[in-house]
């Protein structure tokens, strides 16, 4: 029974993660925590659930990146820059994770998700932050919906992604849940490029993150057997669906996912 639930959780995490660029950890982590608390899966702690999540994200990141490469929506230069900032942060976050108990983990995780959802919710009412584009490396992207000019100062991107990497190592969420809103709100990335580039960075960061969590003994290897293949297939489905939805739909999906998961996690952390 537990393997069936793990396959379902992995598949759904892969679909949603690749669809909106989250990496899948933001779905898998609360799902596994809930299943563990309900007694369906044994041996679940904040450390093991994060270890499982980062292993899964190697394969969801790889699967979706390959799919997005075929659509030519991955900004590899930006992804490499973001990875350079996030990699050291993931290592530090993984070590800090060792000191968290389950209620604290859920509470902090939920607060972060709600904050990100609210940022996206008010995005349309905020004046576009043109400063980052004017004072940074600029890139032009053209698709069927028009031409976009986006960009960022490299120094700021490195600082921002260091913080994102820290949260990724701490919570096992891949960093995409924070990077995508930042790319949309601050750097003015077109949504499809933001999602594709985020998944590329998720893949690279998950490689570094997994080494740290493996060395700490946080990975429940037996649970990777049902989760990883399901997540890999789900990521391919999510990448396919990404190009069937328009940009506004992608942002709405991202808002709903973050808000619902955040509220539930806060509730679980308090009660």
TrEMBL record:
Pfam families: TauE (PF01925). Coiled coil: none annotated. Keywords: Cell membrane, Membrane, Transmembrane, Transmembrane helix. The chain crosses the membrane at residues 7-37, 49-68, 80-100, 106-126, 147-164, 196-215, 221-242, 249-267. The keyword Ribonucleoprotein does not apply. GO terms for cellular component: plasma membrane. It is found in: Cell membrane; Membrane. InterPro entries: TM_pro_TauE-like, TSUP/Inactive_protease-like. Signal peptide: none annotated. Belongs to the 4-toluene sulfonate uptake permease (TSUP) (TC 2.A.102) family. PANTHER family: MEMBRANE TRANSPORTER PROTEIN MJ0441-RELATED, MEMBRANE TRANSPORTER PROTEIN YJNA-RELATED. This is Probable membrane transporter protein.
